[in-house]
Structure formats: C-alpha cells, structure tokens
Amino acid sequence: SLNDENKKLVELTRVRACNTLAYCAIRSSINFSPHISTVAPMFIRLLGCSSFQIRKASILGLPKLLLSLKVGDKSNDTKRDMTFVIVQSLIVTLMLGDDRDLSVTILRLLVRCFQISSSFFSNELVKVIADGINDAVKEIIKFEMEKAQEVGVLEDVFESLTTDELIEEVIHLIATMIDTSRDQFLVHVDDLMSNVVGFLADDNPDRIIAFAISIFNVILPLFPDKLTPYFDRYRSISYLALTKDYPCSLLHATRAVGICAMFGGHKFKDSANACILILYNVLDKELGQLVLLYNNENVKTLWDTAVAALGKICEFHRDCITPEVVQKWLRCLPLKHNYNEARYAHGLLSKLIQRSDEHLYGSNKENLPNVVSVVKRILSGPDRLGSEETINQMIYFIDQHGEIGIGMRIRTVGASGTKSP
After folding, report:
1. Comparing 34-38, 294-298, 378-382, which segment has the lowest mean pLDDT?
2. What is the rounded CA–CA span in Å between residue 77 and residue 69?
3. How far apart are CA 381 and CA 194, in angstroms?
4. What whole-number distance in Å separates Cα of residue 275 and Cα of residue 282?
5. Domain boundaries, the chain
C-alpha cells in the first residue's frame, strides 16, 4: 500500500488531471468534444473516490463537459444520452453525500447544468432531478428538526441560527427548473407540493416554516391553478408567521400574502382586511427599522415586498378595501430596492393613473400632487425601476401634469390667506 506521501502525490496528480481536462473542455470546446465519451466516465468513477479533493475536482469538472458537448458535432440523441449520464451522476452524488458544503456546490452546479443543456433534458432526466429535489427537501427538513431538538426546541434560540446556504440553493434549483423546463416539470409539481405542505404547520420551527413557504412562493406564481387545495394552510401559516414576527419567515410570509391576494380569488376575500392590517403592522415596524438601519438590505427588501403585497390587494380586491388603503399604499412609493417588487408596484401605479382611479386621485383629485411627486421620484431615480411601457406612460403623465403640484399649493395658500413658507 502507498505511504502518506505517495497518497498525497496521487491525490494531487488526479486533481490536476481533472482540472486540466475541465479547462480544456471550456477553452477548446469543439476540439475536446470527441473525447467526452472517454473523459466523462472517468470523472464519474472518481465521484466514489475516498479523497474529498478528488471528488470535488470531478464534481466541478462534469458541468464543464456539458459546455463542450453542447457545441460538438455529435447527434442530438448522443448529446441527450451523455447529458443524462452526467446530470444523473451529480444527483446520485448529492443524495449519497454527507458533506453539506459539497452538497451546496452540487446544487449550484445543477443550476448551471440547466442553464447549459436544458434543451437536452429528457422527461426521464427531469423526473430524476425532481425526485432528487424531493429527497433533498426531506433531508433538509429532517436535519432542521433534529437540530431544533438539540437546542431544546426553544424558538428564540432556534431562530438565531444562521441562514443555511443549502436551503437557498434548493430554492434556486427549483426556480431554475421551473424557468427552463416548465412543461416537463409540471407533472412533478404536485408531488413536491404535497411533500412540502405538511411542514406548513403551526408547531414547526420558524426555519422550517420559512423553507416550506419559500418553496410555495417559487411554484405558485407560475402554477397558480395549484393554489386552491393548499390555500387555507398556506395563507394561515403566513399570517401566523407575520403575527408572531418570525424572523426567518417574515419576508417569505409577506410575499405569500401578495401571492394569495393575486391568485386566491374569492377565497382571499374573507381574510383581506386582516391581511391589510398585518401588512400595515409590517410596514410600520419596517419604517422604524429603515430609519435606524437604512443600509440593511433585508429591511429594505421586506419594505418593498410588503408594499407590493398591499398593492396586490388593492388591484385584485378593490371591492374589499376603502380609498384610504390605496392612499396608504401611494404614500409608501416609490420602491427602490427589490427590482421585481418595484417593477410590479410602479406598473400598478401607472395602470391606476391611466384610468384616473378615484381612490388614487381622491374624489376631488386632492391626491394628484402626491401622485405627481411619486412619479417624478420614480423617473429621477438612477434605475427607473419599471417596464419600458410603464416609464413611457409616466413620462407622458408628467408632461401633462408636471406643474400641478406647484399650482395646487399656490391655490391652497391663496385660499387660506397664508404665505408660502
């Protein structure tokens, strides 16, 4: 048998060989492509090596082979078969692995595999990945439950644990899978949701609730027809998390309220007023936090998410609200930190402007100066957060009403007999 020094030399040689081959697969993709059928099995065999460094080098190298495979002159059937072998090997390694850092790396690489070669993913491979995601979710929740028991299931202690990258990467993989292989993934959505819904329980720790809600938040906007059977549990646990101010769940639960408002239809109406009040509570708390911790990205993102959720209630449940809700929402604009939430909220503002919405403007258009002020601030921002159509509509609005703020203030001063400050 080899002594320790020779073992290290063999390990170093194999790691360098893997790194060199992976580098060639990227730098000389077309020329390297004919050799993938030889190199890929070698990398896959090394996944079972006892050396962590060799396993890691082969794991990192496999997605790079896909880049070369994609541009090579092999038939699509061959590319599809080789893609299956490479991606399946990563899934198997993920399921067998007990190193959490390596699992995070594999999840990130699976996202990269989707981005490179999703056009060669067969239905069978998508099922393998979906099953892998389900297993990963079960393992994460099992681990979190055990960890909660180890700390005595004290909620305040448990909540202080750091955010787990593994959870974030699972969510990212699900989102990427839906984005790139939506039709193929559709048949597996019910299995994933039925696997997760059981963890939307009142007595679960904050981190598990946050994880479960975040999975629903990724799936439901793209598959809204799946919401109905899960609505009550999804909405009620989100409301509970906001009421109890669960730190890990707060952002995810706030986003969930907006999703429920958007796609919940008549089922949401009974809880609309309660959700409005809880969003007010979130906004009031976050306003204080914005003053104290303005540079905290989590605080700013939560603010934007809560404002957008309130906007969705205004848009989809107008018959349940008073004009004051729309005016409260207007006072929270513009949004500046989360691109997607800002894009939605500013788009809604533009829609309300287009139809001269009475709740927005006021019965005597007394809120029009505030609307003009918000639009000006959106247009003067460095990023102009909104779609091209929204921004163009706002520019036209300012062209028509740009001086109205000054004019109305002058008229107000004249009517009151006081001097402008």
Report:
1. 294-298
2. 12
3. 43
4. 10
5. 1-117, 122-259
